[in-house]
Amino acid sequence: MFRLCVLPPPCCVRCVVLSALQCTWLVFFSPSGVGFSVPPLLSRLPDLLSSSAKKRRHLKVAAIGRTTGDALRQQGIAIDAIASQPTAVGLLEAMSRNTET
């Protein structure tokens, strides 16, 4: 089961950081969303999105498609799941493959 933390736009940086600390998955839906939320997360909690799974502990990162995944990689973020199709079903399937049962 996934716990969904939704950030309504416009969202403050503090909301992004607090939500990331409470979620199991941090899901990105667009390159612009990566550009908005990753820099504040990295500046406040550098280990949160570390490419080292050991440092990240509980948090996994997913992207809705290749373009969004590329934007995350450009920021140095390791990705745990990328949807094969940029749809909700594709995203759920990718996340399910990377979730411990």
Characterization of this structure:
The protein has 101 residues and is mainly alpha-helical. 47% of the residues lie in helices and 10% in strands. The protein is built from five helices and three strands; from the N terminus they run αβααβαβα. It has helices spanning 13-22, 31-44, 53-56, 66-74, 88-97; strands at 25-28, 60-63, 81-82. Strands 1-2-3 form a three-stranded parallel β-sheet. Helix 4 links the parallel strand 2 (60-63) and strand 3 (81-82). Helix 1 packs across helix 2 and helix 2 runs parallel beside helix 4.
Topology:
Elements: H1 13-22, E1 25-28, H2 31-44, H3 53-56, E2 60-63, H4 66-74, E3 81-82, H5 88-97
Parallel strand pairs: 1-2, 2-3
Radius of gyration: 12 Å
Largest sheet: 3 strands, parallel
Q: Please write the string of helix (H) and strand (E) elements.
A: HEHHEHEH
Straight-line N-to-C gap:
9 Å
Spans where pLDDT lies below 50 across 5 or more residues: none
Structural class: mainly alpha
Enumerate the strands of the largest sheet in spatial order, edge to edge or round the barrel.
1-2-3
